[in-house]
Structures are given as structure tokens and as C-alpha cells.
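Researcher: I'd like a candidate sequence for this fold, 203 residues long. If you have to choose between options at a position, lean toward the conservative one.
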């Protein structure tokens, strides 16, 4: 089987920053012992807040939070997305997605991180450069086009898409079209992780 090998002159890599600032991070990469310390930190904050609140909806929410933390569970694993948004103003640390650190390969670790924070990557390729673009899950191809350049979104006609998982199944784009691996999509197409996209546009 012959595969298609793309050799661009420039490759742009993705960088991931591991921050020590708990408040600014997107997810928590911790050991189980470190997670317990964060749960205790949230528990102390919750108890202080509860002591100041009168009976009512806010007090009920905080009581639920306190119950979860007392079971030594992170809030992100027990609360719905709507509930987490409701208590966002309190800045509880364990509302952030949690990944337990193991001596895992870096690629596996990064996949876990991106999945937890709801991030995917699509690609653009030309003879000079292959570039990965980071977007949130469920992003339309029109919004992806705007991320590349506003003119692409403004003059969007159609998109051409294939996924990198299919690279070994065709030798060139014409064969990809014949095998229906290369899809023609409209502006509402939701881009998938690993999609390679080309935008046809006119301005």
C-alpha cells in the first residue's frame, strides 16, 4: 500500500504550558495526594462561605459542594456543567477538569489534557507549511475559516475536508475525491479532531 507523504518546508508545532498558577490553568495535572490537598483547600473556602450565607438557594448549592468535598471528590467529577457555571464566581479549584499524572508517554498525556478541556486540532497544508490550529469542540468550518483569516470566512464558498487518519488510503487528492475520502462541505460542517481543511472562497 502506498501512502501520501506531505513534506512541507515549515511545520508549526503546538505548545502546551504547564503552569504553577492554579487559578489560571485550564485543567489540573496532579497526583492523587496533591488532589486531596486541593479538595481540602476548597473545603475550607466552602465552609467560610457557608458561615456567611443566609438560608436560600446559594446556601443549598454550597451545602451540596461541601457534601461532595467531604467525600474527597473533586467538584468537576460530581457537578454538571450548568452547576459548575453557577458557582464559577466562588473560584473553587476542583471545578477544573482533573488528570492524574502517571509516568505516561507525553502524547498520551496531551491527548488526555485536550480531551478534558474540550479542545481539538484541525490542519491546513500547502507546499510551504503544515499548521495545526486549536479550536473548541463543535466548532463550524466557517468559524475555523475565520480563525485562519477573516477573508476566508467573509467569502466562504465551500470547504474540502479529509481526516489525517485516512492519509494511508490515497496517493493524491484526486484519488481521495474518487474514493469519497475528500468531502465537500458547507459552512455548517462541524470540524472533527484531525481534519485537514481547505477553504474555497471569493472576496
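Model: Candidate sequence:
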Amino acid at each position: 500500500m502506498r501512502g501520501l507523504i506531505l513534506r512541507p518546508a515549515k511545520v508549526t508545532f503546538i505548545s502546551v504550558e504547564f503552569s504553577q498558577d492554579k487559578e489560571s490553568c485550564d485543567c489540573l495535572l496532579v497526583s492523587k495526594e496533591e488532589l486531596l490537598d486541593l479538595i481540602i483547600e476548597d473545603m475550607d473556602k466552602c465552609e467560610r462561605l457557608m458561615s456567611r450565607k443566609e438560608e436560600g438557594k446559594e446556601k443549598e448549592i454550597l451545602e451540596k459542594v461541601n457534601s461532595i468535598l467531604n467525600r474527597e471528590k473533586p467538584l468537576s467529577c460530581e457537578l454538571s456543567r450548568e452547576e459548575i457555571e453557577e458557582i464559577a464566581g466562588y473560584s473553587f479549584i476542583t471545578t477544573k477538569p482533573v488528570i492524574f499524572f502517571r509516568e505516561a508517554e507525553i502524547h498520551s498525556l496531551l491527548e488526555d489534557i485536550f480531551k478534558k478541556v474540550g479542545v481539538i486540532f484541525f490542519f491546513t497544508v500547502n507546499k510551504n507549511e503544515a499548521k495545526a490550529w486549536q479550536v473548541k469542540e463543535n466548532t463550524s468550518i466557517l468559524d475555523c475559516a475565520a480563525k485562519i483569516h477573516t477573508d476566508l470566512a467573509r467569502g466562504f464558498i465551500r470547504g474540502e475536508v479529509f481526516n489525517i487518519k485516512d492519509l494511508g488510503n490515497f496517493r493524491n487528492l484526486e484519488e481521495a475525491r474518487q474514493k469519497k475520502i475528500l468531502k465537500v462541505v458547507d459552512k455548517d460542517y462541524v470540524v472533527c479532531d484531525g481534519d485537514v481543511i481547505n477553504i474555497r472562497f471569493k472576496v
